[in-house]
């Protein structure tokens, strides 16, 4: 007990330093815990969410025509092996008294279900009853529409205005995915669920349905159910069956890269805390050399002295770790929410805290102890004779071998084609930093002397007095700055790259998705005001059999006569039309992402489910596209229809004439086709949507890096406080000979600024190097980016670094200015 | 030059108030050399700090060169010190990262004096303290006596009317100590600079025109030069 009490008293001798050290451990532990727990939760929850959102059913039955007979479903109802729900989707316009809402914003897709309360629909009721024969809406839609249970909602259909009572409000779900505001309704339609007979009656489709969703009663009977359904669809013409496949890779592409970036940012936090602990302890040991020497003279062994200091380290580590775990839990919750929001995942899954808790608790205890290893060794080596003779140790030189090793590590990172190159690069920077700092201080000397004169000259000299300590402090900030330069520039470069690519391979200025396209529709589109040209195309998700695993591959049916005008991909050589024209019935083109997922080589075949069963298609080319977020394949449209039997098209591509704005074009199209339109997307919508995902993901990483930078700010404060403490008599003497408080404050602030300037400048340079190195291999959402840096981003980061260093210098400078001269000048 | 009237200094400690100085009076003429003596904790250093405006008296009035320094604010006192008072400390208090000439020019630079002027002042002072050729040396490269001479040169840089020296020979051997006392005495006589020196060393105090004895916070006794028992020693130092 006494040992801990003594350790505590020693810590309380330097309250501010102890507080800052504990704070840095807390932030380090919190960032590690936060990242690990949030990523673990996301990794656990995302597949479950996908499974829940996209594959509540096991199979779907669809028709090659727009509708097929409800009798098929009646026939299925007799089966004992599975549950089936018939579906009919129609479009209408919501009737609202809300002002300033355009027709486009009122689009609603009404889905009729033969049964609403099943595991296939999976609606989670918040209010009301799914069996009450009324409308089912989500809580999100109810909020925007201002509708509650029992209210009547009105829709304008082709067959007149219809009204229905809201009988159930359910939790937001993928089946009833809708916009979160009237503004977002410009891009996405609303969705409501009705009992099937209501939809059939409202739209004059009595006896018709569009699809059937099937779920096996027992997962072990999937093969039997598949066999049964295959038999059923064969007995009807114009029907086909598909298993429902969730392709995690294509939905959350590059999630692992994002998680890795998060891990690195979290690691940065704990690594920076280690630096601060090392620094604090190193100085504390130096300060207490006299004390240790005296203890040695009365018989304390080196081991006992080391034990004393180790007890202090453990005490600080325990307090910091406990605080960090509590703060980390809050951070984990926040990060989880951010990650889920960015990737549009709705899940109420519980947090996965186990691994994060154990790893961060262990890191919080072990990392400080390891960081304290060298200073603790020094405790044992204190020489009584030297201390009592007051022999001051000479300034320690920088070890040139460390510098050389640093250069080698930085050089090695040029050959690593993975984001992990950050680690050798950063260790290299740490080792090389004292040399870079010396170099920088030479430049700083001239600048400071010129601009800040007396205080500036003193500040530069002081920075060079404890070059190891100062450069360690500076390198902490430098690493944070380098990371934030990389992340911010990557963000901006990827956004620009996406915007460029999406325009190149979107196939026009607007993609309209209809409920279904009639023969005369294309001419109507072409004759719409503002349309320069238009075409229709087929798109269908086809089952791809890959080494026993089923995946869903979106395939475009492409016409040779229109592809040159509506370019859905970019080709390396030749014309688009030649490429499509030369495709044979069993040939297919993959885009780069699907080609990479496949892992095969050109000329090999892939296996797809067709009308006639499984069939091989030869991969004859690889193209680049951002259409469908870059995961698709292309076939000649005639071969597409032959193989997959889809007789109707749903999509139209439009090229805008030069005089019309994109918004006006949408209005014109909507005026002509009304609620038949389900969705309209332009490349700018995708740029904005994907852009917000990319920016959101990077923002999360940046939050963590900024936490790291705050830790480095603590490091600056800590170092300056230590410097002041060491120089308290010196400062008092300066004050005694007439140096004003203002000059002392300026001197200390300029020392902090010097640390900040060098850290920020060197950090930015290494950040640019990181961008250069990663530009050759990093892919986010299938996007690569070209090396480039934004001067505006660099300027903002530069100012941020300077601001942090100035804020960090504030307290130490005030404290230095308040040095009590009579106490400081008293004889030792 | 210096008038101290009714000056007391009380420190509030956890154990209660500590009276470092109690109701003291003192008058020092321009060009006078005063030594303050007394046992440890008697209040002599506190008195020196109050004279230099490093601290403020709890009660009473201190006038230096016609300025009532206890009425000045922090910045005014600093600027007053810079221009009117030179300090010399027992352990020299030179800045280790500065050369000799930079240390001497410290107050000149703090006052933003032109480089050329400060250079010529430093050159003259180095000659005065007999340290020519040591301009670019660092304090660690000098002996204790040399370092104290640098400290005296630094104290003289702004041509002050008053030098406050706190145990200036405390860290020096006898020969270097005598050199420093000789230098201070010379400054006092030739430049008419008032010197107030705190010392434990009776021999050192003998160089002063007057010795003030402080005990338990009170100025208890004054001894004038005429009262020296060892006149010979005093004359030899002068």
Please state the overall shape of chain A, judged from the principal axes of the Cα atoms: elongated
What is the strand tally of chain A?
A: 21
Structural class by SSE content of chain B: alpha/beta
- Number of distinct helices of chain A: 26
Keywords:
heterodimer; A: 828 residues; alpha+beta; ten-stranded mixed sheet; six-stranded mixed barrel; 26 helices; 55% helix; 17% strand; B: 238 residues; alpha/beta; Rossmann fold; six-stranded mixed sheet; four-stranded antiparallel sheet; 9 helices; 10 strands; 36% helix; globular
Structure, described:
The complex is a heterodimer of chains A (about 850) and B (about 240). Chain A has about 850 residues and is an alpha+beta fold. Among the domains of chain A are: about 65-220, no CATH class; about 505-680, no CATH class. In chain A, α10 (about 300-340) runs antiparallel to α12 (about 375-380). Chain A is elongated and about 100 Å long. Mean pLDDT of chain A is about 85; it is low at about 390-395. The longest helix of chain A has about 45 residues, at about 420-465. The two termini of chain A are about 35 Å apart. Chain B is α/β, with parallel strands linked by helices and about 240 residues long. Chain B has a single domain (about 1-235), classed as P-loop containing nucleotide triphosphate hydrolases (Rossmann fold), CATH 3.40.50.300. Helix content of chain B is about 35%, strand content about 25%. In chain B, β9 (about 210-215) and β10 form a beta hairpin. Chain B is globular. Residues about 225-235 of chain B have low confidence and may be disordered. At the A-B interface, α15, α23 and α24 of A face α1, α2 and α4 of B.
């Amino acid at each position: 007990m006494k040992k801990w009490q003594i350790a505590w008293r020693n810590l309380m001798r330097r309250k501010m330093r102890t507080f800052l050290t504990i704070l840095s451990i807390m932030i380090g532990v919190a960032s590690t815990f936060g990242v690990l727990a949030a990523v673990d939760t996301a990794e656990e929850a995302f597949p479950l969410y996908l499974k829940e959102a996209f594959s509540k059913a096991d199979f779907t039955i669809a028709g090659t025509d727009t509708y097929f007979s409800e009798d098929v479903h009646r026939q299925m109802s007799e089966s004992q092996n599975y549950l089936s729900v018939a579906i009919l989707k129609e479009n209408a316009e919501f009737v609202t008294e809300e002002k300033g809402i355009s027709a486009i914003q009122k689009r609603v897709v009404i889905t009729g279900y033969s049964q609403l309360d099943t595991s296939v629909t999976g609606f989670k009721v918040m209010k009301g009853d799914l069996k009450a024969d009324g409308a089912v809406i989500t809580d999100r839609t109810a909020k925007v529409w201002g509708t509650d249970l029992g209210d009547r909602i009105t829709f304008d259909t082709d067959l007149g205005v219809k009204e229905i009572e809201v009988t159930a409000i359910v939790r937001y779900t993928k089946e009833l995915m809708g916009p979160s505001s009237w503004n977002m309704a410009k891009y996405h339609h609303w969705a409501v669920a009705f009992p099937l007979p209501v939809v059939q009656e409202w739209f004059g489709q009595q006896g018709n349905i569009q699809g059937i969703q099937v779920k096996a009663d027992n997962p072990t009977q999937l093969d039997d159910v598949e066999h049964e359904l295959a038999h059923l669809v064969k007995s009807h013409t114009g029907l086909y069956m598909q298993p429902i496949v969730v392709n995690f890779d294509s939905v959350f592409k590059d999630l692992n890269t994002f998680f890795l970036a998060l891990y690195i940012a979290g690691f940065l936090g704990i690594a920076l805390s280690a630096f601060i602990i090392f620094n604090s302890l190193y100085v504390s040991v130096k300060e207490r050399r006299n004390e240790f020497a005296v203890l040695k003279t009365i018989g304390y062994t080196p081991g006992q002295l080391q034990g004393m200091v180790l007890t202090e380290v453990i005490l600080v580590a325990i307090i910091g770790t406990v605080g960090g775990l509590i703060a980390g839990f809050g951070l984990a919750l926040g990060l989880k929410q951010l990650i889920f929001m960015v990737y549009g995942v709705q899940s109420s899954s519980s947090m996965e805290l186990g691994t994060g808790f154990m790893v961060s608790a262990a890191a919080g205890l072990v990392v400080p102890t390891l960081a304290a290893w060298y200073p603790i060794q020094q405790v044992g080596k204190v020489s009584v004779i030297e201390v009592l003779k007051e022999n001051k140790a000479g300034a320690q030189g920088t070890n040139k071998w460390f510098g050389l090793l640093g250069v080698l590590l930085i050089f090695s990172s040029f050959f690593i084609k993975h984001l992990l190159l950050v680690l050798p690069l950063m260790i290299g920077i740490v080792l090389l930093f004292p040399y870079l700092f010396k170099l920088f201080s030479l430049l700083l000397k001239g600048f400071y002397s010129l601009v800040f004169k007396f205080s500036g000259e003193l500040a530069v000299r002081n920075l060079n007095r404890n070059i190891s300590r100062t450069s360690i402090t500076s390198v902490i900030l430098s690493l944070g700055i380098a990371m934030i330069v990389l992340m911010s520039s990557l963000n901006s470069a990827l956004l620009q790259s996406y915007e460029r690519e999406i325009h190149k391979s979107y196939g026009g200025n607007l993609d309209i998705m209809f409920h279904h396209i009639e023969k005369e529709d294309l001419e109507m589109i072409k004759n719409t005001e503002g349309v320069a040209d238009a075409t229709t195309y087929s798109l269908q998700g086809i089952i791809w059999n890959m080494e026993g695993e089923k995946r869903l591959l979106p395939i475009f049916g492409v016409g040779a006569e229109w592809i040159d005008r509506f370019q859905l991909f970019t080709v390396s050589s030749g014309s688009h039309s030649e490429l499509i024209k030369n495709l044979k019935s069993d040939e297919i083109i993959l885009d780069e992402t699907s080609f990479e997922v496949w892992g095969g080589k050109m000329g090999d075949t892939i296996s797809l489910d067709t009308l006639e069963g499984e069939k091989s298609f030869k991969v004859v080319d690889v193209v680049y596209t951002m259409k469908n977020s870059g995961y698709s394949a292309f076939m000649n449209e005639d071969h597409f229809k032959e193989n997959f039997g889809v007789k109707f098209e749903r999509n139209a591509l439009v090229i805008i004439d030069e005089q019309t704005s994109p918004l006006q074009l949408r209005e014109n199209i909507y005026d002509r086709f009304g609620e038949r339109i389900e969705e309209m997307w332009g490349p700018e919508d995708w740029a904005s949507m994907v852009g917000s995902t990319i920016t959101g993901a990077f923002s999360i990483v940046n939050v963590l890096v900024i936490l790291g930078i705050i830790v480095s700010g603590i490091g600056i404060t800590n170092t300056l406080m230590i410097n002041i403490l060491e120089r308290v008599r010196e400062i008092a003497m300066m004050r005694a000979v007439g140096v004003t408080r203002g000059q002392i404050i300026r001197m200390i602030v300029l020392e902090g600024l010097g640390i900040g300037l060098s850290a920020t400048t060197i950090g930015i340079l290494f950040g640019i190097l990181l961008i250069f190195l990663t530009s050759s291999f990093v892919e986010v959402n299938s996007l690569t980016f070209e090396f480039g840096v934004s001067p505006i981003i660099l300027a903002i980061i530069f100012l941020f670094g300077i601001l942090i260093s100035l804020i960090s210098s504030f307290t130490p400078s005030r404290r230095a200015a308040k040095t009590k001269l009579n106490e400081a000048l008293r004889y030792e | 030059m210096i008038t101290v009237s009714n000056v007391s200094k009380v420190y509030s400690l956890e154990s209660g108030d500590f009276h470092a100085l109690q109701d003291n009076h003192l008058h020092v003429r321009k060009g006078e050399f005063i030594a303050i003596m007394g046992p440890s904790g008697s209040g002599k250093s506190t008195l020196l700090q109050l004279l230099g405006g490093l601290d403020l008296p709890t009660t009473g009035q201190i006038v230096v060169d016609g300025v009532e320094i206890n009425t000045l604010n922090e910045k005014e006192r600093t600027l007053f010190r810079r221009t009117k008072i030179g300090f010399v400390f027992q352990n020299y208090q030179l800045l280790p990262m500065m050369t000799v000439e930079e240390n001497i020019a410290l107050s000149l630079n703090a006052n933003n004096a032109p480089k050329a002027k400060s250079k010529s002042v430093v050159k003259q002072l180095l000659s005065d303290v007999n340290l020519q050729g040591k301009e670019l040396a660092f304090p660690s490269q000098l002996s204790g006596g040399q370092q104290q001479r640098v400290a005296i040169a630094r104290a003289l840089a702004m041509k002050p009317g008053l030098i406050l020296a706190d145990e200036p020979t405390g860290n020096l051997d006898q020969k270097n100590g005598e050199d420093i006392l000789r230098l201070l005495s010379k400054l006092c006589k030739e430049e008419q600079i008032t010197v107030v020196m705190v010392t434990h060393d009776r021999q050192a105090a003998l160089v002063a025109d007057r010795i003030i004895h402080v005990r338990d916070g009170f100025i208890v006794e004054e001894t004038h030069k005429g009262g020296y028992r060892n006149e010979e020693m005093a004359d030899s130092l002068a």
